[in-house]
Amino acid sequence: MKTLYKSFLLVLAVVILFPLLINGQNQDMVNVTPDRCFLGGTINVFGWVKPNHPGDTIVNLEFTKPVSGNKIQERVKTNPDGKYSFQFKETHEIGTWKVAAHKVGTTIKEEAQFEVSHRVFLIPLCLELKQMDEKTTEAYTYFQDVLKNYPDFPGKDDINDTIDELLNDLQQMQALLVPLESDIQQMNNSLQVHAHNLPGLAQKALIDAADTSVKTIEETTKQIKEIQEVIESSKQEAEWCYIWMSYYYLCEQLKFYNNFLSTSLTGIAKSLIIAETTKGLDKNLQTLITKVINRLSRSKQTPVSIANKIMGLMAKLGTRVYGELMKNCTNYTGEAEGEYHAELIHNNMTFFTMFYKISGDVNLTFQKRKPGDPAVYLKGNFKGKASDFACTITMAPFAQPDTIGPVWCLSATPLVARRSFILYIKGKAAD
Length: 431
Description:
- By secondary structure, the chain is an alpha+beta fold.
- It has three domains: 40-117, Sandwich (Immunoglobulin-like); 122-328, no CATH class; 330-429, no CATH class.
- It is built from seven helices and 13 strands.
- It has helices at 2-23, 122-147, 156-194, 200-234, 240-276, 283-298, 303-328; strands spanning 31-33, 36-38, 43-48, 58-64, 71-77, 83-88, 95-103, 109-117, 329-346, 349-367, 376-394, 403-407, 420-429.
- It has a five-stranded mixed beta sheet. Strands 9, 10, 11, 12 and 13 form a five-stranded antiparallel beta sheet that branches. Strands 1-3-6 form a three-stranded antiparallel beta sheet, with no helix packed on it.
- A hairpin with a 6-residue loop joins strand 4 (58-64) and strand 5.
- Helix 4 (200-234) runs antiparallel to helix 5.
- The longest helix is centred in the middle third of the chain and has 39 residues, at 156-194.
């Protein structure tokens, strides 16, 4: 494992260090989540600035309204490590808002944007789900194609049949999203007229529906990227064990995702039902909300029912693929962590050293072999996060012998640790 860890160090120096140096100091000064909300919803503003030592660190937040241009000022005290957060609830004007963060006592200032809308973001969700279906179709069509070249084994036809069923369900999901989008657009048009005059309970329900939509969009976007990773890492792959491993974990991942999707869509429907049944709601708007609810969860076949079916197919397919992985391959799964450092050298002298920790999950696989058998190729991946950055700078290569000592690592802020990375591992398994 020592060689493996050295490989991690080499790649991490590229993956983590250089983007941090290039992106500049204020990358994490101001962020918003979610980046959109329904009229009257809540936006969380958070970020990091280099803290003052000693003394308090204050950040001024300035919110600019999209139509009137009026500004709302807020003052936030950071934590000792420089992180801050603030809940902004005065989202009573539709359009694109700006929020500027300014560290008091400096000229440092950064901006972010968020959207306040009369929509509940179901059309963007439908568009994202279409992309998800297309990417899943691409992944499993490719898997089915490469499976044709694999020697026959008991259960091969069952895997093919399950993939055929999956591809059919993905097509059905696409077909259901088309009329759903049309009904959502009609609901949005009505909300554009009535959004400022909704009964309180209906407005709260629509805020909840919008928040769930945004979270589902974010998770779906993440899944699309990870499916693409599997496709790209498996293309023209000669090692069957790696393909079995990749698609087993993809099946598991998509099983949980479709459970999440079913739960999210059901939650959106429940929020819309609350709005639909609120006393005093405009009758035409009520009718249009009812149509959307019917499309989502009340009809015989809905996106919720399809998501539940796909969840079951992924469980079945994952079991079959896992069986082949265990039968033909040696597979290692576990957690890894360690402390590392990276150096920048000029004229054989180190002038920058970064220290950091990594932790995450390792998956390795290779063809089964016995002692004395020829070496076989080992492949796998490491998915994890980096944290606890610290660094030192010495100007010795440039201006002997001046040493600055410990400093903040530019953009290696506490928020960087929230970001994940993936490394691909290659090697040999031998005696």
